[in-house]
Amino acid sequence: MSYSRKGKRAAPYRHTGRRSAGSPLLSALFFPAALLYHELLLRVFDRSTPFFDIALLRILLFSLAAGLLLFLLLDLLPWKGAARIAGGVLLGLGTVLFCVERGCRTTFNLYYGLGFMGGMAGDVAGDFGSTVVSVILGLIPFILLSFVPLAAYLLLRQMVFQEDGQENLTRILLAVGMVILQLGGWALSAFGGASSYYTYEYTANVSIPHFGVITSLRLELEYALLGTPAPPLPVIDPVDTPAPAGSGAPDPTVDPSGDPSAEPTAPIPTGPNALDIDFEALAGSAPNDTVKALHQYFGSLTPSEKNQYTGMFEGKNLILLTAEGFSPYAIDQELTPTLYKLTHEGFVFHNFYQPDWTLSTTGGEFAVTTGLIPNWHGKTGAPLYSVDKSMPITLARLFAAKGYAVPAWHNHTYTYYHRDEYLGNFGYDYHGIGNGLELAHVVWPNSDLEMMEATADSYINDYVENGTPFHAYYMTVSGHGLYTWGGNAMSRKHREAVEAKYPNLSETSQAYLACNMELDLALEYLVGRLEAAGIADDTLIVMAADHYPYLMVQDGVDYYNELRGFTDSEDDTSRYKNTLLMWSGAIKEPIEVDTPCYTADIVPTLCNLFGLDYDSRLYSGRDIFATNYQADQYSNCMPLVVFANKGKGNAWITAAGTYESATGTFTPNEGITVDEDYVGRVKKLVSAKVSYAKLLLEQDYYKYVFPSE
After folding, report:
1. Would the pLDDT of 6 be above 80?
2. pLDDT tens digits along 322-378
3. Contact 417, 324 (CB under 8 A)
4. pLDDT bracket for residue 256 (50, 70, 90)
5. Which candidate, 73, 64, 78, places its Cα nearest to that of 30?
6. Which residues on adjacent β-strands are paired with residue 323?
7. Which of 23, 69, 543, 550 is deepest in the core (most CB within 10 A)?
8. C-alpha angle with apex 562: 348 to 474, nearest 5 degrees?
9. Within a 10 A sphere around the Cβ of 145, how many other Cβ atoms?
10. If you average pLDDT over residues 509-514, what whole number do you get?
11. Beta carbons of 352 and 580 less than 8 angstroms apart
C-alpha cells in the first residue's frame, strides 16, 4: 500500500492509457507496406509487363486496403501472442505465394490461379522434380528479396501488435481508410478498359498484371463461391451478301491428288457442310436466355461450303498428333529429314498458327482435338471443365460412329493434367504410362520413338488383317523443356549431332533442336511401318503443336529469337506462326495452302476431308479449304485466326490482314483494301467466337442440339 504525505492512503495507481511499444502509424502501415512491397517486387521482375501504367495505381489502392484489413482483423484478437503468430504465418504464406507465381511466370510465362496450382502440385513435384530445383535456383535473387518483409516482421512484431491493441477511434479511422482505398481500386477496375478482366473474363494470368496477386486471389475465391459473372452476350454483324469463292483457298481446278496435269476424277461436291438443325425452333424452346442466345448465334452463321477436297480421304485412316513444344524451327533437312519430308510433300501450309491459349499443353491439345477455342472456366481450363459435358462431335466420336478404332496414347503419366478424363470423354480409348503403355526406358522426357514402336503395330495390323479402319491420336512429350543437356534426356541423346552442325548456338537452342530429333525418329518409324504394310496411301498423318516452345524464354533471355534469327515478343502474332503437317502417300505433289488458319480449324477441315456428316457452324474453326468468302470482304465464314486475350485484347488474322491487339493496329495485306467498318465488324465476330466457345461448355450446349447422343 502507499500513503500520502498527510498519512492518508492514496488511491491505487490505475493505467488509463494503452501501453505502447511503438506508434499506431507504424503498427497500421506495416502490413499494407509489406503487401505493396511484394506486388511491386513481382512487377519489377516481370519484364513483359510495363511497370508504370494505370494498373500500378489499382495495385497500390488494393494492396493498401488489403493490408489494413489484415491488420485490423488481427488487432481485434484479444490474444496478442496469437495475433503475432498468425501475422507471421500469413506473411510467410503470402511470401511463398508470390515466389510460386514468379516461378510460374519464369517457367511458363504465365500466372496461375491458386486452385490450378494446387491441383497440379502433386504432378509437378512427382514428375518434374529436377525442373523445379532448376527453377528455384534461378529464383534465388527474387526469393531473398521476397523474405525481407517477413524478416522485418520478426524483428518488429512487438511494435506491430501492441499489447493492448489500438484505440477504438484509431480502428474506426483505419477502417474508413480501408473502405475508401478499396472503393477507389474497385472503381478503377470495374469500369474502363480492364473491367472485363475484373469480372467475366477473369483469369489469374490477366488479373495479376492488372490488379495484383492479392486481388486476384480474392477474385478467385469470390468466383469459386458465387460463380463468375456472366458475360454480355455478343452479337455479330450479319453477312451482307453471299460470298463467292475467293483467292485464299487452293485452286479448285487442281486435282486433289496434287498432280496439276490430272483432271478431277469426280464432280466437285457442292452445298453447305451443315446438318438439318432447326436453330430457330431450338431457340423457342430454350431453357434459359443464354442457351437461346447460343442457338441464335450458331443459327446466324454461314456454313462452309463443300469443295474439291470434300471426301478426299473418305473411308481411309487418320493419325493425329499433338506435338509437345513443336515449331517450324525444329525442321532441318539434315537433322530431322522426316519432318522435312512430311511438311514439304503433302499439304504445305504457309500461314498456320498455334496461339498461346494460356492453358499450357492442354489448351493447344483441346483446340486440336475439338475444334473449339479453349477458355478458362474459373480456376479450371476448358479440357478438364469439359469432362462431364456432352462432346458428341469430337473426331473420336465421329470416327467411332463409322466403325473406326480410336486409340490414343501419351508417353508420360496417363493421368497428367487429367488427360485420362477428358480424352476419355472425347471418345478415345486412351493409354499412357501406368495404364497400358510400357516403354523400355522411363526418363524425362520419354521417347516418342519408343511410344511409336510400342503402339503402331496394333492398329496397323488390325487394319491389314481385319479391315478395321483407325483414327489414332498421340500426344508426344520428347520436345518438352527444360532445353538443357542436364534437364532433357532426349536432348542428351542427340547432342553430338546438333553441336556438330550448329556449334555457335546457345545450349538452349541446341538442346531444343536435339530433343525434336526424337520426334523425327518416331515419324520415320511410323511412315516406314505404313509403307511396309502397304497402307501409306490409305492413311493421312496430321500433326500440330500444342504451343510454341515458350520454355526457350528463360530469365529474361529470349532464345527463341536466337533460333529464328529475328526478334519479336509474345505480344506479336508472328511469335505463334507454326507448321501444320498433313501428309499422305496418296498426295503425289505438294499442295500449297496460303489461307490463314490455326489449330481450331483442324477438326472441321478433317471432317470435310474424310466426308464426315458434320455441321461446320458448331466449331470455333472452319474448313481451311472452304472457298465461300472474298478476301477483302467481311463474312462470318471467312478465314479467321483468333489469338487468346492475354490482357491486351484479342489479336486476329484474316485473309485481308493482321490486327495486333497490343498496339491496336490493323495492317492490310498487300493489294487488299477493306471498308472502314471491316475492323470493327471482325472484332465483334472474334469476341463472339471466344465468348460462345466458353458458354458452349458452361451450358453443356451440345446436349440440346444432339439430345440422343
Report:
1. no
2. 999 999 999 999 999 999 999 999 999 999 999 999 999 999 999 999 999 999 998
3. no
4. low
5. 64
6. 545
7. 543
8. 45
9. 14
10. 98
11. yes
CA distance 446 to 439: 8
To the nearest whole number, what is the mean pLDDT of the chain?
91
Residue among 367, 376, 359 nearest 394 (CA): 367
**C-alpha cell of 381?**
481450363
655 close to 248: Cβ distance less than 8 angstroms: yes
Is residue 630 a contact partner of residue 615, using CB atoms and an 8 Å limit? Answer: no
What the block records as the C-alpha cell of 423 is: 480424352
Cβ atoms of 600 and 369 closer than 8 Å: no
CA atoms within 13 A on the CB side of 699: 21
Grid coordinates given for 523: 515419324
Which DSSP string corresponds to 123-166? Answer: HHHHH-HHHHHHHHHHTHHHHHHHTHHHHHHHHHHHHHS-TT--
> pTM for this one?
0.90
Mind giving me the DSSP string for 648-701? S---EEESSEEEETTTTEEEEPTT----TTHHHHHHHHHHHHHHHHHHHHHTTT
Q: Would you say 619 and 603 are in contact if contact means Cβ atoms under 8 Å apart?
A: yes
What are residue 472's DSSP bridge partners? 319
Q: Using DSSP bridges, classify how beta strands 640-642 and 352-353 pair: parallel, antiparallel or unpaired.
A: unpaired
Pairing state between β 352-353 and 597-598:
parallel
The Cα–Cα gap between 55 and 327 comes to 34
Which residue is associated with the grid cell 442457351?
291
Which amino acid does the sequence have at 537? D
Comparing 222-226, 391-395, 526-530, 594-598, the range with the smallest average pLDDT is: 222-226
- 333 CB-near residues (< 8 Å, 6+ apart): 340
How would you classify the pairing of strands 429-433 and 407-413? parallel
pLDDT interval class at 10 (50, 70, 90): very low
Q: Hunting for cell 511438311 — which residue is that?
A: 343
Return the residue matching grid coordinates 535473387.
141
* Cα angle, residue 259 at apex, residues 255 and 263 outer, rounded to 5°: 45
For 372: left if phi > 0, alpha if psi spans -120 to 50, otherwise beta; the answer is beta
Judged by average pLDDT, the poorest of 1-15, 139-153, 169-183, 190-204 is 1-15
In this predicted model, what pLDDT tens digit does every residue of 277-318 receive, in sequence order?
999 999 999 999 999 999 999 999 999 999 999 999 999 999
The cell numbers describing 253, all together, are: 481446278
Find the distance separating the first CA and the last CA of the chain, reported in whole Å: 91
Q: Residue 595: left if φ>0, alpha if ψ -120 to 50, beta else—which one?
A: beta
3-state helix, strand, coil in the chain (%, to 5): 50, 10, 40
d(CA 332, CA 321): 19
User: How many angstroms separate the CA atoms of 111 and 209, rounded?
Assistant: 9
DSSP-derived 3-state class of residue 470: strand
Cα–Cα dist 364/349, whole Å: 18
| Length in residues, the chain | 709
Cα dihedral sign, 209-211-217-222: negative
Map grid coordinates 473449339 to a residue. 372
d(CA 610, CA 314): 4
Alpha carbon distance 178, 191 (integer Å): 20
Nearest to 45 by CA among 126, 142, 122: 142
β-pairing verdict for 553-554 and 557-558: antiparallel
User: What are the strands of the beta sheet with 665-668, ordered from one edge?
Assistant: 640-642, 652-654, 657-660, 665-668
Question: Distance (Å, rounded) from C-alpha 345 to C-alpha 276?
Answer: 37
Let me know: does 329 contact 577? Beta carbons within 8 Å: no
The three-point CA angle 578-314-392 to 5° equals: 75
Task: Please report where in the chains the cell 512484431 appears, as a residue.
Answer: 157
